């Protein structure tokens, strides 16, 4: 049976390859991202994975952080989402998941949304994934 750690390791490998050199930061497992990071980072969190039967099902969320850009509006500088980078990185993550081929596993992209993190002045894309696991 797969554990949440197994799912995070699979996603970590997939996304590290997909984002290799294309973001200013790193791919992290949940809890490992530096709290003061101002870089483009990807965080992987597994929400749950069932344990007592096959197929196992589970859910993970990818958080793709992109620093805001300062834009001058009426002479006032204000942080605004870097929509171009948000879109580019979301596409990279979704394509990596959709193009993955892992025997006995199916990863489905459920939904995606852009969020704002007021505390760190960054926007992020949250991508919810569902797992269907047919193997031990």
How are the secondary structure elements laid out?
Elements: H1 4-18, E1 27-29, E2 41-49, E3 56-67, E4 69-73, E5 76-80, H2 83-98, E6 105-117, E7 122-133
Parallel strand pairs: 1-2
Antiparallel strand pairs: 2-3, 3-7, 4-5, 6-7
Provide structural commentary:
The protein is α+β, with helices and mostly antiparallel strands and 136 residues long. It is built from two helices and seven strands; from the N terminus they run αβββββαββ. The strands form two sheets. Strands 1-2-3-7-6 form a five-stranded mixed sheet. Strands 4-5 form a two-stranded antiparallel sheet. Strand 6 (105-117) and strand 7 form a beta hairpin. Helix 1 (4-18) crosses helix 2 (83-98). The chain is elongated and about 60 Å long. It starts with a helix and ends with a strand. The mean pLDDT is 95.
- How would you classify the helix and strand content by structural class? alpha+beta
* Biggest pleated sheet: 5 strands, mixed
**How much of the sequence is in beta strands?**
35-45%
Mean pLDDT: 95
In angstroms, what is the radius of gyration? Answer: 16 Å
- The strand count comes to 7
Shape: elongated
Name the strands of the widest sheet in spatial order.
1-2-3-7-6
Helix segment tally? 2
- Order of helical and strand elements: HEEEEEHEE
Termini separation (Å)? 4 Å
Helical residue percent band: 10-25%
Low-confidence stretches: none
